[in-house]
Structure formats: structure tokens, C-alpha cells
Design brief:
The protein is an alpha+beta fold and 157 residues long. The chain is built from 2 helices and 9 strands.
């Protein structure tokens, strides 16, 4: 992971372009914008993950894990999803879908999602104890506290 953005030391994308075909060089995803996907000769694929650990985990779970599981012949590509009730207002970004890290706890029969705090891609602590990822579409709506949404489950509490 790392080396897939546009800095002078980010050499993965130019290398993949010289070896094969880069199909995806950026995605409208937060965190994880510089994600890269390429095909190489010999029926091979390459994934370039962003350097920040939070971005790397999110792009792995959203893109890489499902692709690898499909290539391995699994019938279920994604991690399971479950309905969760938000205990916070999930604010959107204007231009990118965001995967927010949350912790889960039970209130009666409900799974309740609490934010892990600042959702900055450089904030490693947003992963500590995270049980799930909540997808917040780009735009101006977001989700109010109390809304039930689907969460991509990383680990159950």
C-alpha cells in the first residue's frame, strides 16, 4: 500500500501503467480516493491501496476483498451487512461517498452504531474498536440520528 497518489515519490501508478493497463486511478470515495486497479499480462490483476491505514482498510474491504473472493470462486464476496440504528448524525461530503467507522452495541433487539470520532483518513484511532463501516452517500442529505442503515460488519461486539 502507499505510493498510489500523485506525489513525486508515488511510483506505483506509473509502474503499473508501464506494465499493463490502469483501469481505475482514483475513486470518489472517502477515505480512499487514490485507490488504483490495473490488469497485467498473463491474466493478472494489481490493486494499489492508499498509504493512510484507514484509507487502505476501507478500500481493501470495499474493492479488494470482494474481487479476491470472486476470483477464488466464493459465492459471497462481501462481508455481511446488518441493519443498524445510528446514534449520531452522519454528515455527508459533497462530492464523495464516505465509509464511516462505527462501534456497535445492542439496545434491546437493535444494533446501534456510534461514531468512532473524527473520520479523518489520517486518524488511525478511528479504526480502533470499529465494528463496522457505514456508507454515507455523497450529497447534502446524510442521515439523522435514529435512521436505520445497512452497515458492513467487520466484527461483532
Amino acid at each position: 500500500s502507499g505510493g498510489v497518489s500523485v506525489g513525486t515519490h508515488d511510483l506505483v501508478k506509473p509502474l503499473l501503467e508501464s506494465l499493463g493497463t490502469v483501469h481505475v486511478g482514483r475513486v470518489k470515495l472517502k477515505p480512499g480516493k487514490p485507490f488504483t486497479f490495473a490488469t497485467l499480462p498473463g491474466n493478472r490483476v494489481a490493486f494499489g491501496l492508499p498509504g493512510f491505514p484507514v484509507s487502505s482498510l476501507v478500500t481493501f474491504e470495499v474493492f479488494v476483498r470482494p474481487a479476491l473472493r470472486k476470483m477464488q470462486g466464493f459465492s459471497h464476496w462481501q462481508r455481511p451487512t446488518l441493519p443498524v440504528r445510528l446514534a449520531y448524525d452522519a454528515k455527508p461530503t459533497a462530492d464523495r461517498t464516505e465509509y464511516q467507522r462505527v462501534t456497535l452495541h445492542r439496545e434491546g433487539r437493535d444494533l446501534v452504531a456510534e461514531t468512532t470520532g473524527s473520520q479523518s483518513s489520517s486518524r488511525l484511532m478511528s479504526l480502533a474498536g470499529a465494528h463496522a463501516l457505514v456508507r454515507v452517500p455523497a450529497g447534502d442529505q446524510g442521515f439523522k440520528a435514529g435512521t436505520v442503515v445497512e452497515a458492513l460488519i467487520l466484527a461483532l461486539p
